Amino acid sequence: MDHSREIEVEGHIIDSGIMTRVFDRVMDMGGDFEIITFDVGKKKVDPSYARLKISADTEEKLNSITSELHRYGARLIEADNVRLIPAEADRVVPKGFYSTTNHPTSIRYQDEWILVEHIEMDCIVVVDQASSRAYCTPLSKLRKGDCVVIGEGGVRVIYPERPRETGVFEFMQGQVSSERPSETIIRKIAEELLKVKGKGQKVAIVGGPAIVHTGAGESLAALIREGYIDILFSGNALATHDIEYNFFGTSLGMNLQTGDLVTGGHKHHIYAISEVMRSGSIAQAVTDGIITKGIMYECVKAGIPYVLAGSIRDDGPLPDVVTDSVVAQDAIRAHLGDCGMVLMIGTLLHSVAVGNCLPSYVKTICVDINPASVTKLMDRGTTQAVGVVSDAGTFIPALLAALRANKKDAIG
User: Fold this and answer.
1) CB burial class (10 A; 0-12, 13-18, 19+) of residue 89?
2) Which segments within 151-269 are labelled E, that is strand?
3) pLDDT, tens digit, for every residue of 210-247?
4) Whole-model pTM?
5) Which domains does the chain have, with CATH numbers?
């Protein structure tokens, strides 16, 4: 006996490939579909609408299929209100809880559709019944008695459509390749960055120590000084080696000008950390005249916030490093609200960490010399990212040059 359910999908579902994904997923999971209605938009700006009957040989398989299709923006025809169950204890979810995607999401509550605020992937939706507002809540923040959304009934997801403007996200969406013309890509990224800034949104960078190791530290410092970067997310290593370079001209004990290892250079980063410890913080070391240039110097001078999230590998670490990972997550989230673009350069773990907190509508660019790093970021849910396979020492100076050229052209 077949079990069936009707769903609907709406938007630019053809040129964005959403319908193809829906068909493929149904068949891959052993189900079947019947097209009941398919209204195709006549113009490029017109949305399309499809109503499908999804069938499977068991109710369990049908539930699994519709759950997967839900993540592509498909919704059941019946628009029930969401079901709520209070959490029985702190950080204990009720069985059957709804796990969020990073796509814009609304829930039907008291016969009204309300937007889920602060959306990010792999979280819980909690409803504040007093204010009739819904919040995306990480497990670490769930408290006893919170009203948790159960199942997918009454939940609507808007799957991201293919960008309709000409730009790097249309040019490269979903692709990772070192064969593409890097000058063209970097120019398009610079144009997108300026558009984001022009809208009053912020640009964040997630940076790894490779930025300093490859000699791009001065270019990143210039990007911050000239107002192109608004937030820095990183770890102990980037800040430490940036400060080491300021003190000794080395990174990991290697002279960046000559490429030679310096005698005793393996201790330079420890000296750098110790001198910041003496001042008490990076900002105070700048005030004390200890740090006089570099990435962290420019952040302090420009008032740019930075979150340095620690790891088990860290030496020191610097006094500014947040060693509690839950506190570091919260610090990252606190700075993402106005972000329109995030550049992730040379750091897979921090890129995944920030990516996990990002809504899917934030323009995300991942730059790494290893193509696998870019692919892993996308595989872990940051599907909106476009990948650029490039060395940080090549990419950042080229981006700075493209931004300066664009600014020069705009002036005259």
Assistant:
1) exposed
2) 155-157, 176-177, 202-207, 231-234, 250-251, 254-255
3) 999 999 999 999 999 999 999 999 999 999 999 999 99
4) 0.85
5) 1-77 (3.30.70.2690), 79-161 (2.40.420.10), 168-411 (3.40.50.10690)
